[in-house]
Specification:
The protein is an alpha/beta fold. It has nine helices and seven strands; from the N terminus they run E-H-E-H-E-H-E-H-E-H-H-E-H-H-H-E.
Length: about 250
């Protein structure tokens, strides 16, 4: 199989688990990362150890030139079949009356603009309108989009609300061109992202609020992502799929 999957933020957490799961399904994986080259290289090595193919590429999705370059380099690796718009950030816990314009611009640039620009590059390659042979896009949203994250990071929640709307709109825009677009809304997943919000133990602390009474793993989210990428999901588009233990 010569099908390439690009996973932005594939060096750690949900992106890492997705990169590994996609490789197991036969994709050649482009592992995007922002700054942690060592982590991305470890993912590539783990894929190679399982006889898969992967390359690591630095791509800050907050920088348009990085995105354009990522896709150009991926063109030399095979045919783009899947994009997982996984890269995303939270900021320190804050109320809205404490948020700076700089913080909000960074949040929206990485989480929203970055995902839309990556999708733009993917559509140019996948769409039958542009001579492509179709493909799949999976966006990482969050249950924060429905909860709003009051007192924590409403800006992050709003960025994920935008991802939900974008998912529905893009799915309808490109369905007839052979591209399926879906989103996953993870709940509390055990990754490093909680430390970025200032509380590394946040997921475990809130585990009792989850109907299933536990946090989820990156692999449990990745399983849903690769299912949406697969032909098993051939009639699924414009869907927002909760992987949240019922939260
Ligand atoms: P994580 O453990 O913090 O990992 C973040 C990944 O994204 C890393 O690979 C990081 O690269 C990369 N990244 C960060 N900023 C980037 C940028 N500007 N450009 C490109 N890559 C960047 O995060 P995670 O928990 O796996 O989250 C993955 C996605 O799931 C995010 O979109 C997040 O919002 C969403 N999500 C997570 C949870 C959860 O509970 N964990 C819940 C709901 C939704 P480096 O290694 O180079 O830093």
């Amino acid at each position: 199989m010569d099908s390439v999957a690009i996973v932005t933020g594939g060096s750690r957490g949900i992106g890492r688990a997705t990169a590994l799961a996609a490789a197991k399904r036969g994709y050649k994986v482009v592992v995007g990362y922002a700054s942690n080259k060592a982590a991305a290289d470890e993912v590539v090595a783990a894929i190679a150890a399982g006889n898969g193919k992967a390359i690591a590429m630095k791509c800050d999705v907050g920088v348009e030139a990085d995105i354009v370059d990522l896709f150009k380099q991926a063109d030399g690796f095979g045919t783009l079949a899947a994009l997982v718009n996984n890269a995303g950030v939270v900021d320190r816990t804050a109320r809205v009356d404490e948020m700076s314009a700089e913080r909000l611009t960074r949040m929206m640039t990485i989480n929203v603009v970055g995902s839309i620009l990556c999708a733009r590059e993917a559509v140019k390659r996948m769409s039958r309108k542009h001579g492509g042979s179709g493909g799949v896009i999976v966006n990482l949203s969050s249950v924060a989009a429905t909860l709003g994250s009051p007192g924590l990071y409403v800006d992050y929640a709003a960025s994920k609300g935008a991802i939900d709307t974008f998912t529905v709109g893009l799915a309808r825009e490109v369905s007839a061109e052979g591209i399926r677009v879906n989103a996953i809304r993870p709940g509390l997943i055990d990754t490093d992202i909680h430390a970025s919000g200032g509380e590394a133990g946040r997921a475990q602390r809130l585990a009792h609020t989850v109907p299933m009474q536990r946090v989820g793993t990156a692999e449990e989210v990745a399983n849903a992502v690769v299912w949406l990428m697969s032909d098993e999901a051939s009639y699924v588009t414009g869907t927002i799929f909760d992987v949240s233990g019922g939260r």
